[in-house]
Amino acid sequence: MTISTKQNSLSMRAMLRVSVNAWLIVLLACSGLWAQNRPAGKKISAGKITAPFLQYAKSYEETPYVTKVVLKNGMTVLVNEFRAHPVVSIQAHVRAGILDEPADRPGVASLLAAMLCRGLPDTVKGTRRQNIQLLGGSMKCEAYWERTELEIVASSSQWKRALNILIEALSNPCLQEQEIKLEAALTAGKLRELAESPFEFALARLLGLGFDQPPLNRWRSSDSEPFGRIMTSDLEAFYRAAFSPENILLIISGDVSSGEALNELVKIYKPLKSSGVKLKRLTLQSRQESFRYAALEGNIPYPYLLFGFHVDSDNLADSAAIQVLNAILGVGEGSVLAMRLRDQRKVVLAASTHIIQWPGLSYLVVELQVRPEDIDRSEIALFTEMELLKRQEPSEADMARALAQMELSFWSHLETVSARA
Length: 421
Hints:
about 35% helix; 13 helices; Cytochrome Bc1 Complex, Chain A, domain 1
């Protein structure tokens, strides 16, 4: 497998003000948020309303689209009533993930997420996953770099049972040694499948190249060896620090009444109490002084070229400009890269871009799929287009197409209850 990685600087004038450093990953073949305008929210005094959930609320805010409650234990709850379909998505976003793992215990966040989905099997009821399947729904628990996410999707007629199962998972991970061993083997298998995807593997390597510090520069192992070093006490310690109520954002979206959902929640949220333990969060070093390049070889049909550009995640003005730049460059069939590199010059087979934004870590990724003989030509062609964008502002047609594409992406993203959440 060959991965090439290059880094440079990108800047744009006027609206598209971006300072970036670039890196490129090439996977060679051996064988040849668009914000919706909404009315201002209405804050309601808890003392004037007798809804049961308000007895447990620190603050309460209601808009035509979302009801927001911050409970006294620190947990934030959002309820989005969407009655187009008889489905509900219940999600818990925990502000702790792979970046928060202890350096000597890689994999603890992924394994803990898997254990939350598993729970303690009952000889009659089965695991939590099986309980949700009996309801005709699905349950997902996944650790990402900056967060851990739990989601249950089920029929709206079963939303109370689904909510109870998710809260139980958050408050009682059921960490038993035998179950941990079983889930460790399953989690290692999922990582093995991920490693077999050329694009996902290259993207992980690109991240490690651009942010040269653990755990970003450490490929998530595809065997069970790291999980074998994780003790029950390690999982318990990470759980106490990460799954404190103030770190949890609970979202309920779908065919459900916000008042009913909040009243049901406060009946069962009491076991969630702050542990007082704080996570040692990783400080990301995104500063880069020079261009970086790496290459990996593998037996795949066509090479992948991945270019990464550091972008400022804290500047709101630049963030909006970067979103537009992303749409101009590589979103949709009419994007600049697709039209010029694929259709006109015919040096690439496919071209696209996307932005990954996390707190303290953001980058713009350009992905090209090319023929083996066109690797050098496509690299030169891409940097040429970048230089042209630096020297001249986008045309009105490019801007109009980009804004229309962003609007389309926004509304398409809201077609499911999971995405709305």
